[in-house]
Amino acid sequence: MNGPMLKVEKLVKHYPLGGGFFDRNPLVVRAVEGVSFSVDAGETLCIVGESGCGKSTIARLLMRLVDPTEGRVLLQGTDIAGLKNDGLRNCRRRMQMVFQDPYSSLNPRLTAGQIITEPVGNFERLGRKKREALAADLLRKVGLAPEIMHRLPSELSGGQRQRLGIARALSLKPSIIIADEAVSALDVSVQAQILNLLMDLQDELGISFVFISHDLGVVEHIGHRVAVMYLGRIVELATREALFANPVHPYTEALLAAAPLPDPTQARLAVPIEGEVPSPVNPPKGCAFHPRCSLAEERCRIEVPALTEMADGRSVACHVRAPAEYPAGQPSE
Ligand code: SF4
Question: Which is one GO molecular function term here (predicted)?
Answer without folding.
Answer: ATP hydrolysis activity
